[in-house]
Amino acid sequence: MKGRIPVYFVLLIILLLLAFCADLIFGSVRISAGEFSNILSGDGDSNLTLIVTNFRLPKALTAVLTGSGLAVCGLLMQTLFRNPLAGPYVLGVSSGASLGVALLMMASAWFGGDALIQALPLGNWGMVLAAMAGAFLVMLLVILLSLRLSDSVSILIIGMMFGSATGAIVSVLQYLSDPDSVHSFLVWTFGSISDVYWPQLRTLAPVVVVGVVISITLQKPLNALQLGETQARAIGVPVRRTRYLIIVVTSLLAGALTAFTGPIAFVGVAVPHLARAVFRTPDHRILLPASILCGSILMLVCDILAQLVAAPQVLPINTVTSLFGAPILIWVILRNRRNRNSLSE
To answer: Of 39, 40, 154, 342, which has the fewest CB atoms closer than 10 Å, so is most exposed?
Structure first.
């Protein structure tokens, strides 16, 4: 199996390049392979070049950042909590981002929200800043509490409670707000990578890159955590510091991605299992880059399908990722149950 690992990585890189190019070609305006080659050489039609460089290229890069960032978050959470169904949003950070957006978009129930939004000189950054503020608040609370707790299970429960509490507040806002505001918020919850352009990408990309790089430096502690926190301490791993770094990285990645693209389901939970199924190893030195590649490819493929399935309409990205992710999670549950039954026999 070890001899095949480089081959698998080469195949994934080729698939990533093909999916990236396909995402630039397919859309409401179809671009042929010849026209795309002309655009790459600088001799393409000016209108098509404008479409690719100003709209499709930032969207494809956002898909790569989103898929890789969510996949890394999912792998970190599953390792920290030793739970195959843990995802990037178990700490409640995504719910905090949703609460921030809900307060901004549905504030008309008390404060005349439409006039307030128009009065703020934020442009397209309004929802992003609101989501980041909500995510940062929850992240800060989780980090402060994690410093006082000695086990990961308690942190998991607290994160779930934060998510439930913020979800309840969002439900109250939806109940009290006007239908137009509720509709706008629901559209945001569908998730979209099409609203991220170069200005937003200049902010999102460094956050994701820094988070992924920090995660790569945690490969050895992550391998040790798979043995349990007690065993990890026995071999000299600083468990509390590692847990703190995982929470910070996951919160930053999940909060930033949710702020810019909305909540995107299943990618973070499903992709690490895809990486494990392909490479058949628990070693994070392999799983981390494998998850980054698999997550990027999956998001690009989902974006292509979202544009082609109902053309000229574009499906919400959450719809497509759920269609991919749900079967994978069902397979994980059935496989774990089969493994438990075989061990009991």
So the answer is: 342
Q: Which amino acid is at 112?
A: G
The number of folded domains in the chain is 1
On whether residue 340 sits in a domain, the answer given is yes
Q: Print burial letters for 88-110: b (CB count within 10 Å at least 16), e (below 16).
A: bbbbbbbbbbbbbbbbbbbbbee
What is the C-alpha separation between 19 and 30, in angstroms, rounded?
A: 15
User: DSSP states of 51-85 as a string?
Assistant: HIIIIIHHHHHHHHHHHHHHHHHHHHHHHHHT-TT
44 is a domain residue: no
Q: Which domain holds residue 138?
A: 89-344
User: Does a structural domain hold residue 218?
Assistant: yes
Query: What is the arithmetic mean of pLDDT over 274-280?
Result: 88
CATH number, domain with residue 210:
1.10.3470.10
**In the numeric block, which tokens belong to residue 197?**
């352009």
Instruction: Please say whether the beta carbons of 272 and 261 come within 8 A.
Output: no
Tell me the one-letter amino acid at 210. Answer: V
The answer to whether residue 25 is domain-embedded is no
Distance CA 254, CA 264 (A): 10
Residue (of 137, 191, 190) closest to 166 by Cα position: 137
